[in-house]
Amino acid sequence: MTQKLRVTVWGENVHDKKNETVAQIYPKGMHECIAEGLREDASLVVRTATLDQPEHGLTEAVLDQTDVLTWWGHCAHGKVDDAIVDRVQARVLQGMGLIVLHSGHYSKIFKRLLGTTCSLTWREAGEKERLWVCNPGHPIAQGIDRYFEIPNEEMYGEPFAIPNPDEVVFLSWFAGGEAFRSGATWKRGNGKIFYFRPGHETYPTYHQKEVRLVIRNAARWAAPEGSRWIDTCPNVPVEKAAEKIVAQGPTLHKAGEAGYR
Ligand code: ZN
Questions:
Q1: What's 130's domain CATH number?
Q2: What pTM was computed for the model?
Q3: Which phi and psi angles does 56 have, rounded to 5°?
């Protein structure tokens, strides 16, 4: 691809402004730290967007120029406008990649696209997390050895109420003994989705080199392929059928009519 991959990093940016611990670890906001990690790859063009901006920074124009969107949210999922969720969902179905991070498991957009509760078990004890690579050949796992560790993280444990992933790339073990599918992929419409677990706001997780590497790999993996699949639901008239047919029986629709929405 000659054109550079355009990544938009979306951040809720609420804890970052209100909580002193979070502000110390992420003085420019978590979204800027995630963006900084992505910018280590010069082939990516990275911008950020936050909840408090008009249309949450995700205008039609911004999404139109976004190949891959990353999403971090936690305490303000309910404040995300449903119209913006509709818009992001439509772009994913067209082919935009989506990387959902950590507490984004409970975001409106993740639940909408996956169709399940996406609940899990959790504990905030600053314990060690070990992320095992399940498929060393997967593009998202490139550059990671058999596993890597994060010294202090929040625990997320099974059951994780997601539809069965197309692939589990990472499986986490926590010092407290729990296990969790911490890196998982799905396809929805023409878009690729990757969920990546690490990133609790009171730990410096997005400064860690392995975490940044995985997110960069995921951005390249989630890049759109082919062309956009625009939802039009077209009527195919009898004369354009692949085989010659004669229309029979009563019809409800007129030729050329658009589908109901
Ligand atoms: Zn958390």
A1: 3.40.50.880
A2: 0.96
A3: 55, 25
